[in-house]
Amino acid sequence: MGHPVVEVRDVTKVYGEGETAVHALRGVSLSLDRGDYVAIMGSSGSGKSTLMNIIGCLDIPTSGSYLLDGVDVSELTDRQLALVRNRRIGFVFQAFNLIARTTALANVELPLAYAGMKAKDRRRRAFAALSLVGLADRAGHEPNQLSGGQQQRVAVARALVTAPALVLADEPTGNLDTQSTADVLAVLDRLNRSGRTIVLITHEPDVAKHARRLIRLVDGRIVEDALVSA
Amino acid sequence: MNILESIRFALRGLTANKLRSGLTVLGILIGVAAVILLVAVGNGSAKAIQNSIEQLGTNTLTVTSGGGGLRGGGASTQNTSLTMDLVPALSDPNEAPHVHSVSPVVTGSQDATFEGTDHTIAQFVGTYPGYATASNFTVAKGAMFTGDDVTEASKVVVIGSTVAEDLFDTVNPVGKQITVSGKLFTVIGVLVEKGGAGFQDPNDIAIAPVSAVQESLTGYGPLNQLLIQATGPDDVTAAQAEVTTILDDKLHVTGTTTAYRILNQSQLLQTRTDAAKTFTTLLGAVAGISLLVGGIGITNIMMVTVTERTREIGIRKALGAPRRTVLTQFLVEATVLSVIGGLLGVAAALIGSMFTIYGIKPVVVPSSVALALGVSVAIGLFFGSYPASRAAGLRPIEALRYE
Model ipTM? Predict the structure, then answer.
């Protein structure tokens, strides 16, 4: 089956220097295979978001290496990194991070535009992605006209529109009510069934139950890595 | 993603933030318009001064009695008054080849009446016919008096447009008789209205033969002035030298007495033009400061949006936007705002310069337009794109966390 989708080798991450240095990750090794559905749990400050940002190529480790599809990302140029973020990874943030005063459709179209797709194809695919998360009728709304759950579903649509192999969700349900949480998780479950690798950060055991593998972080180290009994 | 797409993104970004875009454009507009208008006003006032002096006639010399001839108890019997005797001497083409005409001037204000209407003529001038040409007057209706009128001391008068309006209203003044301080004068002509931003109305004037004025109004006293017209604008200095020699001889002036003064119109013009230049420079400095202030305003509004934009750049980078694409978008946004603001500023300044401001008609200086536009656009471009380029260089997560 070739190399794993994600391979993290003894990664550390230190913020700041000297006395005030914060060790967010103290040597984490991790390997994710194609089609994995992984939940990362841990209290705040345990380094789970840092790990997620490194996996998502948004941040670089202080030491150790990270291989995405067998390629060491530290050797990629800025342009290649942009391409990786665009094609291989879909990222869902806790704070949604939609572009303000821009319609849902335009937000979802954005990664496709950066991929160089033509406006017409882009529109069609973005619309399909919005339909998938059940928001086709909200395509023309701007973020401030949508509820939190709807905004997060737009963000999910934006993450999946480029059909990335790896979908990363950093506490996607952290700001959502029960119904919206169920909606968003249903979309992620469906994505996983279609073969995508999904990494999900969460505080809530209920949310973590959707995953097949659970990784628990404490103080920047993995303390538990086990399959979730269904 | 190609350039065209980047431009579309930039335009979408601008329309999505109408208030911010509007304020930026306004800032640039005010900066540009202020500079252009201030310089235009300065330039306009300089031009106005120049015009008013040119209308007095630039190739003329005015000789006035200095009144200071009796200095230090020397030759105390010396008479330095300007008299009619000087006129033929100054008109001698051998002695003074650069003098075109000499007009003696006796002047004063006189009360005039016509059929019960009163008007005080500010300048009632007794002179020769050459006076009109020398002081840039032309006759609109009727005719100028002639040399014969001077010889015969005919009581005829040519009046300025202000006098004509006040005394005659709509009636044609030519051929009518007016009473000037109790003496009857026949109006034979009306002068063309003369413009000028001077302190005195140049059209409140009446011109009559010097002989008639002396005979009936002022008596045969000394002349007020001698108005001398040079043969051309370039001959004024030569004419002045000749006039000085003749006057020194005739009035027996020795050394540096101030028996008379010669006012050279072209020197006056030069002085006033220099003063106007200083004025323009001053206004230019004020304009420069307003350009600086406008520039700081542009800088401010561009920088203030950095926080929001930095987060946005983080999002865009996380979605896979290459650095260059982000840069292009922000550069285009800054360009569009600066250019629109700059052009609107130029338009506002051009419209503003159509109006007369405190009696000054602004005259736009093309180089000020280029300078104001150039500086504002440069500032807008730099401060619009520099923070964006810095943000685009950050790792996505740093840009996203930026507060």
Answer: 0.92
